[in-house]
Each structure stands twice: as structure tokens, then as C-alpha cells.
Automatic annotation (TrEMBL):
This is Uncharacterized protein. It comes from the Bacteria. It comes from Rhodopirellula baltica SH28.
Length: 41
């Protein structure tokens, strides 16, 4: 395994974790806004 491929794998893992955290934040916000809309109507 070369250094470049190791870097690529690390980048992919980092991107995956960032995407997961972003998705979690977005879903939390979406659920919160959904609840907020549900309370208003």
C-alpha cells in the first residue's frame, strides 16, 4: 500500500464522518422544524 492510497483512504473516511455529522445535524434541525410547524397548526 503506497502513501498516496493511504491518504486517499484517510480522506474518504474523513469525508464520510463529516457527511454523517452533517446529515445528523440536518435531520435534527429538520425534525425540530417539523415539530415547530406541527405545534403552530
Amino acid at each position: 500500500m503506497t502513501f498516496a492510497s493511504t491518504l486517499k483512504i484517510c480522506d474518504a473516511r474523513r469525508l464520510q464522518s463529516v457527511a454523517q455529522t452533517t446529515l445528523r445535524l440536518v435531520s435534527k434541525r429538520f425534525i425540530g422544524s417539523k415539530r415547530f410547524i406541527g405545534q403552530r397548526f
